[in-house]
Design goal:
Length: 773
């Protein structure tokens, strides 16, 4: 009767709970430990018979803000978040449970712990699954007035429309422990209708906090946000700006990026810089990547082949956003994109650093809040030039959450091989199967370069076989190289009867534009000089000189009229078959930055087996390489190429010490660095093919391989994709300047490498002419 006849007095308001019970020390719910209880609520009639029963999963947890930090169950928590839209490539916004579980398990496996339901409350089942598997949620109301800003939030006629969205969301979802924040919507300005929503929510549910990025106050300098929101939320603002907000006098609320790291196409660069800042500033509580899934729709070409369509592909010619819906870290069928591996690395819950590697000492940081590291197994590997030579499992490490310790790795000092590199890799794996991953799933790993190395073998030029020069052809033992006197390039490189070159090396400064390059960076216009410099090259001088009986020097000086620059390429051909290529660039430093600095060539299509010793196995760039490890990798050129749904720059590798392209018999071409490691990629397409393609089906495999041998390529950037912030951060750009780099070309047979590809050639210091800019 007390429930049925609930009393509302003339003063005050009734208690929130009509029934209550005190539970003594329950197991708490968190994203790490999603402990749930089953609450059964039932009715019994006057005769003691069961009339009706309902059950629900409930979790016990407390969310607080203390000194600007987000506290869950008394522990400071960071939000490794992502924005998620309901999306299926087949059924659109209707998403079934199987796909929801696939999303959640992938998020957990890649070390995400939170989701913003952008920009509407999701299917009921999503919240139950987040309760069960463990994800923190920002539940967002279905409210956006993007095109007209805050007009409706300041119109009394719309007050009820605003408020009812808050009421419906909170009433429906209030019992889910996974929800820690309520969000008032997205990009709808700021006004009293939003404040009405916030005050109703706070009055009705005092156990959670209110989020809304649109609640901002503008004026001179930094301004405090309206007080109806409990945290400072921003989209795509810089790291420096967010740190400045934390230093604003009187502002002690937590600060979060509700959107950042716009992952459109080949993107998500410099992610680690955001997290260096977050981990060092108490008020910065995390961020939510935009976004989870490429929202392509499965369609068929006229030939019956499947592809993922985007704006403009289905007759929607008048109004569409082209491929702007393709900004996820997974593709439409949830295959991880390369950027997702970087997320996993940056978010990993175990920090691993070198202390004294010569003594096997490393530092371990437990970044969990509720998990002891004794729940993980620890393994280590010692690699010599990418091959595991020692490995073992360590005893479980009893390390409490948020604690650090030193750990001893008992590897034996290896017998050093000339030129070899030695890396120690430490790996943490699940000890037991979890709801979201099997036993043995890798949670965290780190590769550390050991401080031990023996100098590489120095080749003895005097012992090399003689060379002959016939016109523009240099002939050695079972190899010959011919130069084109009109271009200064290699026109033929033969090993026995095998031709290794289709189109010789040419200076190259351009990459197929990424979404960030094209949209925000406007590089087709702002950096057009480097595309022209790649396309328009003029041979200024060409000279062949026999330095000794087993050394021939070829020097090509190439003018770049569009850039008012020149490149001198020195080729030193040795009797061993080694061709040492030295590229010297002389350029006006007032020119804009370069997309890349390197050389490009084409080799016949049969040489499509790619082997490299460098960072991998997935593509990596100078601002997105933390997740890639130095190793020895093998893959076909076609399989190595990562196909973005709108093709663009792809498949680069950094810190490459050597690589080879061979045919099925192991014959082909070896390329090794001379000084600094290289940046490289190999494609079954041309730069122009990739740049013109709008869909994967536009790319037709060529009968040759395009090979990029670069000193460096700029990063992929992606703080956003529509402003200059789309460009990589300053540290990951290539300013216009004089540069020089060198590498070795060498024919190989049956994959036989000299000293495993690691050797030196006694050519002395690089000879760089003193050209005036």
């Amino acid at each position: 009767k007390r429930v049925y006849n609930e009393y509302f007095g003339q003063r005050g308001k009734p208690a929130f709970a009509l029934m209550r019970a005190d539970i003594s020390n329950p197991d708490k719910w968190s994203a790490e430990k999603p402990n749930l209880y089953t609450l059964v609520f039932y009715l019994i009639d006057n005769e003691g018979k069961l009339v009706e029963s309902r059950s629900a999963k409930v979790g016990f947890r407390e969310v607080e803000f203390i000194d600007g930090a987000l506290m869950v169950n008394g522990k400071s928590v960071l939000l490794y978040g992502v924005n998620r839209h309901d999306h299926s490539p087949v059924t659109g916004k209707t998403v079934d449970e199987e796909l929801m579980i696939q999303d959640i398990t992938l998020m957990k496996q890649f070390n995400f712990n939170s989701v913003r339901t952008s920009h509407y409350p999701n299917d009921d089942r999503w919240y139950e699954l987040c309760d069960q598997y463990g994800l923190y949620l920002i539940d967002e109301s279905n409210l956006e007035t993007h095109g007209i800003g805050g007009r409706l939030s300041n119109d009394p006629a719309w007050s009820n429309s605003f408020l009812e969205r808050a009421v419906r969301m909170v009433e429906r979802d209030k019992n889910h422990p996974s929800i820690i924040f309520w969000s008032l919507g997205n990009e709808s300005g700021d006004g009293y209708n939003h404040a009405t929503m916030a005050h109703w929510i706070k009055s009705y549910d005092p156990t959670r906090f209110v989020h809304y990025e649109g609640a901002q106050t503008f004026g001179k300098g930094l301004q405090r946000d309206p007080l109806y929101v409990d945290m400072i939320s921003r989209m795509y603002n810089s790291i420096d700006y967010m740190i400045s907000m934390s230093e604003l006098e009187g502002e002690d609320r937590p600060i979060v990026w509700c959107e950042y790291a716009h992952s459109m196409g080949n993107s998500t660069g410099n992610l680690f810089e955001f997290w260096d800042a977050i981990r060092s500033n108490r008020q910065l509580i995390g961020g939510f990547i935009w976004d989870w899934v490429d929202q392509g729709l499965l369609q068929k070409t006229t030939d019956g082949d499947d592809y993922f369509a985007y704006g403009g592909d289905m007759g929607d010619t008048a109004i569409n956003d082209n491929n702007f819906c393709l900004n996820g870290v997974v593709d439409p069928v949830r295959n991880p994109k390369p950027a997702l591996y970087e997320c996993k690395k940056i978010f990993q819950p175990v920090g691993i650093e070198a202390v004294n590697l010569s003594k096997g000492l490393i530092k371990i940081e437990n970044r969990y809040q509720f998990t002891n590291l004794n729940e993980l197994n620890i393994f280590w590997e010692l690699q010599e030039d990418g091959k595991v030579v020692q490995s073992d499992q360590l005893a479980a490490l009893d390390l409490n959450p948020t604690s650090t310790t030193e750990l001893y790795i008992p590897f034996k000092a290896p017998d050093l091989k000339a030129g070899a590199s030695y890396y120690l890799t430490v790996i943490f794996k699940l000890k037991e199967t979890q709801s979201w991953a099997p036993k043995g799933h890798i949670v965290a790993r780190e590769q550390l370069l050991l401080p031990m190395r023996q100098a590489a073998v120095m080749l003895d030029i005097a012992e090399m076989k003689d060379l002959e020069v016939e016109g523009n052809t240099i002939i050695g033992d079972d190899f010959s190289v011919t130069f084109d006197a009109e271009t200064g390039r290699i026109s033929s490189l033969k090993h026995g009867r095998d031709e290794l070159v289709r189109l010789g090396l040419a200076p190259h400064f351009w990459r197929p534009v990424t979404d960030n390059d094209e949209r925000g960076g406007k590089t087709p216009r702002s950096l057009a000089v480097w595309k022209k410099a790649t396309e328009n090259q003029k041979l200024a001088s060409f000279d062949i000189k026999q330095v000794s009986k087993n050394q021939v020097e070829v020097v090509s000086t190439i003018e770049l009229p569009d850039a008012e620059a020149k490149v001198q390429v020195n080729y030193r051909i040795l009797g061993s078959g080694d061709i040492v290529v030295q590229n010297n660039l002389f350029v006006n430093s007032k020119l804009p930055m370069m997309p890349k600095y390197g050389m490009q060539m084409e080799v016949p299509g049969q040489y499509d087996n790619l082997t490299w010793f460098g960072k991998g196995p997935h593509e990596n760039y100078i601002d997105r390489e933390k997740s890639a490890e130095i190793g020895l990798y093998k893959q076909s050129v076609a399989a190595d190429y990562y196909m973005y749904l709108k093709p663009q720059e792809s498949s680069n590798k950094t810190q490459v010490e050597w690589f080879s392209l061979t045919n099925n018999q192991g014959n082909g071409l070896y390329i090794g660095h001379v000084t600094d490691p290289l940046s490289m990629s190999a494609w079954p397409y041309t730069t122009e093919d990739i740049e013109k393609a709008q869909h994967p089906y536009d790319l037709k495999k060529r009968d040759f391989v395009t090979l990029n041998i670069d000193m460096k390529q700029m990063g992929v950037g992606g703080d956003d994709s529509w402003s200059l912030q789309a460009l990589p951060h300053e540290a990951f750009r290539i300013p216009a300047d004089n540069y020089s780099y060198s590498f070795i070309l060498k024919p190989i047979k049956q994959n036989k490498l000299v000293n495993n590809g690691r050797y030196l050639i006694p050519l002395g210091e690089p000879k760089i002419p003193n050209y005036d800019r």
